Amino acid sequence: MTKTQSGKKLPSSLERARMAARVIVENKGEDVCILDLRAVTQAFDFFVIGSGTSRRQLRAISDEIDDVFEKDLGDTRLSVSGYQESRWVVLDYGDVVVHLFEPEMREYYALEDLWGKGVEIPLEPDAAESGSDKTPVAPVVKDESNN
Predict the structure, then answer these.
(1) Model confidence over 41-50: pLDDT tens digits?
(2) Which helix (H) or strand (E) holds 33?
(3) Around Cβ 128, how many Cβ atoms within 10 Å?
(4) Nearest-angstrom CA–CA distance, 61 and 59
């Protein structure tokens, strides 16, 4: 578990990624997915990706995620990008990065393809995960094309 600046323990990065995904779904976001990138990069653990149908909706989802993370968890966002333009909003919580797109922007940037070695994680824990602190880690894929 990660600690907040006040010393309060945060839920795991996977639990927080799922919380962000639930907020997107509850706010009528579309095509929500969580990518486990722990085996791909050390910069962060998870991407949460979702689409909204309007700039207003993307801002509302962004604001709601911030609200839930700050008020319920004491988790402070490190940075935000794209909020004013609202065609692609990026919320950076360190180990969890949330990407909110207008559909055309999501298709154009195709993060799921760009980070294709990541593993898609179910939005809700399955029976094997419940009651366990262990979260599945994406397998390390060796790139043997250079040999």
Answers:
(1) 999 999 999 9
(2) strand 30-36
(3) 9
(4) 5
